[in-house]
Write a structure and sequence with these properties.
GO terms for molecular function: RNA binding; tRNA dihydrouridine synthase activity. This protein is mainly alpha-helical. The chain has 2 domains: 60 residues, no CATH class; 60 residues, Non-ribosomal Peptide Synthetase Peptidyl Carrier Protein, Chain A (Orthogonal Bundle). The chain is 52% helix and 4% strand. A two-stranded parallel ribbon has the order 1-2. Helix 4 packs antiparallel against helix 5 and helix 5 packs antiparallel against helix 6.
Amino acid sequence: MAQGNSGAVDWKIIKQARPLVEGVLLANGGVGTRGGASVARDDARDLLKKTGADGIGIGQGALGKPWIFENVKIQMSKVKTKEEIFKIILKHARLAEKLKGKQGIGEMRKHLCWYVSGLPTARALREKLVKVENFNDIKKILR
């Protein structure tokens, strides 16, 4: 069964595997790919509930959201605020510029867009962030 990266995720096969697996069963697919942190938590809960799995794996949902693992813990209590996300962005961008200069900031652009996905102003932010040339540009946009 190959779904690739399109369409709705089908978790039925994982549920069918549950009685056949004697050890720990980890489920993967779709967690955090539809939006912000609260959606990721809901995805994780649904995946566990609908499959009977013991735990989850997160793949593409983590792109640009390295905090997703923290947010998706079973007893999640806190979602990253916009301010916390911006702080992470600035730290990452500062390191990228320090390590690779202008090239590092160029490489950061895709991550910047992923970081802001799920925020209410994501579209406007992405339009500006894809044009940044240096750390100060990013800082000005995130004020």
